[in-house]
């Protein structure tokens, strides 16, 4: 079973703004270069979608109401939904903040048919969190994922095992889970339009077009074969934060503060996940849209804001060309390990303010009173 929250960020915002239900709502930060974080289905009817520049979205839907995002609320509701899903089965694979796969094999004898379980999930999500979700049920992850997309919004589609191929074949080839736009364009150039067209194609033809590995994977999915198991443990590969500025910034105090802000966000998320990082990486985009990145391995794994910021500042400073100005900066933490059991190295020359207790207390305050309740003085 695949469970996907409907217009998740927008739906969470409407929990505290029920007066906006049924209206075109866009979630986005303010600013000239702001982008759409999420949009209600009423706004999507005007072709508004996430990652679209806010200015373009306003042109497409002049009547839209724009509200600021509240990421702490999204994380809180997401955690509650995932806990609800684990009441159904312990085998839950969370693939993003608003979607997860469930292996129902061990739950059918206890809870009854899969469709009934899916309807119960939809009902409980609505009752507990005042948001809706769409559910897809199939014999594999890929089929369940496609089914949930067909169920949107606020619906359920079950594909019995014997009807898998009949379900897949007439669908547009772009419906295949994991098929990127470039690969889709290459396959379309062969005259393929549906999943059935792809399934009937010669293996050699597809391999010559997209490569042997991609061909084998896509052909298997098109023919209803997907042996990828639902895994209950999701390993975080990286954690980060980035910001696009309203105005291009030169290297100076204002840009250093923005780097600190991103380092603080990333470190906070790292501690929330009970992880440490071995590597700090930075990304910058210049005023002429060129993107550069650098990374550094630390002497010891850490989750301290000050240590991460010091590495990030030096990396960003080394990326800016002489006289250059930046429109975007990002900080990413890689090579993550679990905090438990990891020795945290304390240096004799550790700077004042690097005490891990400071970060821990700051995290506790933010959890209780919101992300904006406590900040580093330099950022004021």
Enumerate the spans where pLDDT stays under 50 for 5 or more consecutive residues: 341-353
Total beta-strand segments: 12
Radius of gyration: 23 Å
Q: How many independent structural domains?
A: 4
Strand content: 15-25%
Order of helices and strands: EHEEHHEHEEHHEHEHHHHHEHEEHEH
In the CATH hierarchy, what is the class of the largest domain?
A: Alpha Beta
CATH H-tier superfamily of the largest domain: DNA polymerase, Y-family, little finger domain
Description:
By secondary structure, this protein is of the alpha+beta class. It folds into four domains: 7-70, MutS, DNA mismatch repair protein, domain I (3-Layer(aba) Sandwich), CATH 3.40.1170; 72-163, Reverse transcriptase/Diguanylate cyclase domain (Alpha-Beta Plaits, 2-Layer Sandwich); 173-222; 238-379, DNA polymerase, Y-family, little finger domain (Dna Ligase, domain 1). It contains 15 helices and twelve strands. It has a five-stranded mixed beta sheet with strand order 5-6-1-7-8. The chain has a four-stranded antiparallel beta sheet with strand order 9-12-10-11, with helices on one face. Strands 3-2-4 form a three-stranded mixed beta sheet. Helix 13 (253-272) crosses helix 14 (305-319). It is globular and about 65 Å long.
């Amino acid at each position: 079973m695949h469970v996907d929250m409907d217009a998740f960020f927008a739906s969470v915002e409407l929990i505290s703004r029920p007066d906006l239900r049924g209206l075109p709502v866009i979630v986005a930060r303010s600013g000239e270069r702001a982008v759409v974080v999420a949009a209600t289905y009423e706004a999507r009817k005007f072709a508004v979608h996430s990652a679209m520049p806010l200015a373009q979205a306003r042109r497409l839907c002049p009547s839209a109401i724009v509200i600021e995002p509240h990421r702490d609320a999204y994380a809180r509701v997401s955690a509650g939904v995932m806990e609800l899903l684990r009441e159904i089965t312990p085998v839950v694979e969370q693939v993003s903040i608003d979607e997860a796969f469930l292996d129902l094999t061990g739950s059918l004898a206890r809870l009854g048919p899969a469709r009934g379980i899916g309807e119960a999930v939809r009902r409980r999500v609505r009752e507990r969190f005042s948001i809706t979700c769409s559910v897809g049920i199939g014999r594999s992850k890929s089929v369940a994922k496609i089914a949930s997309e067909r169920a949107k919004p606020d619906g359920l589609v079950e594909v019995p095992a014997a009807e898998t191929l009949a379900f897949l074949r007439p669908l547009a080839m772009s419906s295949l889970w994991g098929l990127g736009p470039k690969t889709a364009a290459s396959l379309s150039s062969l005259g393929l339009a549906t999943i059935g067209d792809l399934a009937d194609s010669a293996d050699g033809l597809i391999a010559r077009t997209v490569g042997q590995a991609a061909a084998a994977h896509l052909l298997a999915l098109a023919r209803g074969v997907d042996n990828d198991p639902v895994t209950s443990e999701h390993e975080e590969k990286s954690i980060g934060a980035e910001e696009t500025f309203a105005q291009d910034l030169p290297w100076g105090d204002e840009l250093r503060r923005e780097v600190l802000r991103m380092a603080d966000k990333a470190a906070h998320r790292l501690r929330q996940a009970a992880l440490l990082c071995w590597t700090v990486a930075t990304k910058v985009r210049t005023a002429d849209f060129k993107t550069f990145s650098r990374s550094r391995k630390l002497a010891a794994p850490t989750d301290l804001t000050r240590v991460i910021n010091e590495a990030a500042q030096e990396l960003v400073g080394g990326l800016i060309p002489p006289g250059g100005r930046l429109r975007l900066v990002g900080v990413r933490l890689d090579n993550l390990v679990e905090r438990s059991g990891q020795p945290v190295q304390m240096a004799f020359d550790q700077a004042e303010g690097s005490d891990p207790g400071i970060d821990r207390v700051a995290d506790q305050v933010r959890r209780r009173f919101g992300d904006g309740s406590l900040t580093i003085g330099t950022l004021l």
